[in-house]
Amino acid sequence: MPSGWPSTGGTRSASTSRRLPSPGRLPPPTAPPSPGAARFEAVDLEHWSTDDEYDLVTASFFHSPVALTRASILRTAASRVVPGGHLLIVTHAAVPPWAPPEMHADHNLLTPDEEIAQLDLDLNLWDVRIKELRPRETVDPEGRAAIIDDGVVLLQRRSPLLPRRRLQER
Ligand SMILES: C[S@@+](CC[C@H](N)C(=O)[O-])C[C@H]1O[C@@H](n2cnc3c(N)ncnc32)[C@H](O)[C@@H]1O
User: Fold this and answer.
1) Ligand 1 contact, 5 CB (< 6 A)
2) What does the CA dihedral 48, 57, 150, 99 come to, rounded to 10 degrees?
3) Which helix (H) or strand (E) element contains residue 137?
4) How distant, in Å, are the alpha carbons of 37, 86, 118, 123, 143 from that of 83?
5) Given a cut of 70, is residue 33 above it in pLDDT?
């Protein structure tokens, strides 16, 4: 993201939000974002709502072994994207090749097509810009090279001011 954008981050993990930039340098959570400000909040997104609007909403590896109304949360977030703005979702699209199946039995990992279907957004109002599986090089717990599939879904909310463009086939 270019520097200078006001941004808001949310996670349920209080420890994660403590590791983020010093609250002393940030406005209090109730203040509207000022240009260039970053704001991080420890929130349960199950109960989150906002009147703010965003040029970009992004969720990375938003998975949880506990019950999570994930699609509903992402739809709420999508509803705050301005016309012409983007929703970017990066996911674990497959379990690690080294993991025993029972380790991820509670996770319902989706392909990009399944992700888009589950979002159930009105595709008359959104253009699919990217829907890809992206293999990523990593190492397994034994230190051996391994490949893991990430999913990337980028949707753009249509704007009457922007020309329509088709998804580029790669
Ligand atoms: C696998 S971690 C990914 C963390 C980070 N986004 C990343 O890309 O490394 C999943 C995150 O989802 C957050 N999370 C899960 N359920 C949540 C909820 N109901 N409300 C807010 N955050 C939640 C967890 O706190 C955790 O930080």
Assistant:
1) no
2) -20
3) strand 126-139
4) 22, 8, 21, 13, 45
5) no
Q: What 3 state SS string does 79-117 have?
A: CCEEEEEEEEEEEECCCCCCCCHHHHCCCCCCCHHHHHH
Q: Which fold has domain 46-170?
A: Rossmann fold (3.40.50)
Q: Rounded to the nearest 5°, which phi and psi values hold at 84? A: 90, -15
Contact, 90 vs 152, CB < 8 A?
yes
Q: Tell me, yes or no, if the pTM score tops 0.90.
A: no
The predicted-structure confidence for 103-141, as pLDDT tens digits, reads as follows: 777 778 999 999 999 999 999 999 999 999 999 999 999
Higher pLDDT, 64 or 19: 64
Residue ranges covered by each domain of the chain: 1-43, 46-170
Q: Supply the mean pLDDT for the chain.
A: 84
Ligand 1, atom 15, residue with closest C-alpha: 64
Pocket test for ligand 1, best of 13, 46, 76, 95 (most atoms within 8 A of CB): 13
The reported pLDDT for the residue numbered 42 is 86
Backbone angles phi, psi at 24, to 5 degrees: -60, -25
